[in-house]
C-alpha cells in the first residue's frame, strides 16, 4: 500500500508551501537542493519541514491538501505547532455580516 503525505514547509522568508508527495524525505531533499529553479521554494531556501500528515488514501490526502493549501500562514503554523485552540480562533469568521454578529429578531 502506498503512503501519501501532505506537508508544509516554512521558507526562509517565513512564507509557507503546502503540497503532497508519496516520499517525504526524498521530496524535502529535492526542495533543499533546489533541483527545480521554477519551484516556489527555490529562492526561499533554507526550508524547514514544519508539518506532515500521513494518508493511506490518495483521495483523502488530496482533499486535505486542498483544504489547508490556501490557509493563512498563521493557521498553518498553528496546525504545525499543534495549537488547536489558536487554529479554531483563526478559523472563525470575523466578517460583520456573519450570523454571529447579527442581532436576533424575535
UniProtKB/TrEMBL annotation:
Position of the signal peptide: none
CDD domains: GIY-YIG_UPF0213
Pfam family, one: GIY-YIG
Domain annotation GIY-YIG: ranges: 2-78
TM regions (residue ranges): none
Alphabetized Gene3D superfamilies for the sequence: GIY-YIG endonuclease
Superkingdom of source: Bacteria
Similarity comment: family membership: Belongs to the UPF0213 family.
Designated name of the protein: GIY-YIG nuclease family protein
Native organism: Gilvirhabdus luticola
